[in-house]
Description:
Layout: H1 2-18, E1 22-24, E2 27-29, H2 31-43, H3 50-71, H4 90-93, H5 98-109, E3 112-117, E4 120-125, H6 128-135, H7 149-154, H8 168-180, H9 184-189, H10 191-206, H11 216-233, H12 240-254, H13 259-262
Helix pairs in contact: 1-2, 10-11
Amino acid sequence: xxxxxxxxxxxxxxxxxxxxxxxxxxxxxxxxxxxxxxxxxxxxxxxxxxxxxxxxxxxxxxxxxxxxxxxxxxxxxxxxxxxxxxxxxxxxxxxxxxxxxxxxxxxxxxxxxxxxxxxxxxxxxxxxxxxxxxxxxxxxxxxxxxxxxxxxxxxxxxxxxxxxxxxxxxxxxxxxxxxxxxxxxxxxxxxxxxxxxxxxxxxxxxxxxxxxxxxxxxxxxxxxxxxxxxxxxxxxxxxxxxxxxxxxxxxxxxxxxxxxxxxx
Length: 264
């Protein structure tokens, strides 16, 4: 269809160049009108599938994105792996274990590396010397952790000390934590509880010394939970298994992949 349309258009233009007027359906029209008439007459037979239209729109969108990025002034950023238009450096991070992938990339690009995962831009610092230079005199600028919609839903919009934004609320929580939990006096007061729970853990492990398998992770979870709950409330939880199940579910939900984290 395309070859026939082009051939017909070229034929009309050729005839129009040699004749000032051309007969179409018994009337004379100008050469330009002949060209438009040929296009209109064959347009109803010249249809493309929808996938061609989608591909063309996608190509034009990517081309426009590349042109707009090229016109913007580029800041001085660290080196990094090559990026794709939409996903950025995400394809480099999906090749294997994340910590090994980061190590390989840092060995290739240096201790300061630029990664862009979709709409998130991150500077990866992989050496103690570079981290010391960055944090020296810039503690306040790098003290706040990146928040996300999932973390906000699980932690009440960062009201806890772990994900709280840097500011007066965070400083208040830190003061309470250092005074009521981590001071030397409070640690000494919790010493008896920790020793009792540690002795209880050793006794439970000794009771299974007849060759049975022991899940150390579960026993350590029970030890830490009993120690923390006794230090806070003065007694163990009556339903510790249900509490640990909820905690593990929360940790699992906080580490899930969320598109809102990559496209804020």
